[in-house]
Amino acid sequence: MLDTSARAFEAMMGVIGALGVKSLSIDDNAVTVPAVQTLTSPENAGALRTVNTVTLSIDTTGLAGKTIAVLAGWTGSMGYSGTGANPAATMVINGSKVQTIAVTNSIDSFMCLTGSASFTASGGVDSITVSIGYSAASTGTPVLGQRTLWAMAAKR
């Protein structure tokens, strides 16, 4: 259907070769804009503690009872000059541990986590927190440096 007065075109299906878009709106905000946190402050050895956190505010109006997926990823760079620190990182989404990584005797490491979790939409605005916990023994003086956490929700 072509409505020249409204400058709109509606099609049930089709193929587009090259397309330039200034603004895109997906029905019911089916995919959210990712929340991202990048930190460079050093995290030294110690007991498990939170080193990155993002919170998604997801509008689920009209979607009460439907399953919403949260997807997340994290990368952290760590350096140390010995062995035995055994650093570990854990991803938690909405209070549930979804992924853990532990590094054994590896000097200057990258740690990466990806995970997902689902929840049931309330029909209002749902807040979902994604966090990363980190721990390491003090052997070899480990330091977690730059790290980035991202998360987004998919409503369909």
CATH class group:
Mainly Beta
The percentage helix is: under 10%
Tally of DSSP β-strands: 11
The sequence of SSEs as H and E is EEEEEEEEEEE
Task: Count up the helices.
Answer: 0
Q: What is the structural class?
A: mainly beta
Radius of gyration based on Cα positions: 21 Å
Parts with pLDDT < 50 across at least 5 consecutive residues:
none
Tell me the CATH topology.
Jelly Rolls
**What is the typical, i.e. mean, pLDDT?**
86
Largest sheet: 5 strands, antiparallel
Number of domains: 1
| Shape designation | elongated
Distance between the termini: 26 Å
Q: Indicate the proportion of strand residues.
A: over 45%
Account of the 3D structure:
It is built from no helices and 11 strands. It is an all-beta fold. The protein has a single domain (27-154), classed as Jelly Rolls (Sandwich). The strands form 3 sheets. Strands 3, 4, 6, 9 and 11 form a 5-stranded antiparallel sheet that branches. Strands 5-10-7-8 form a 4-stranded antiparallel sheet, with no helix packed on it. Strands 1-2 form a two-stranded antiparallel ribbon. The mean pLDDT is 86.
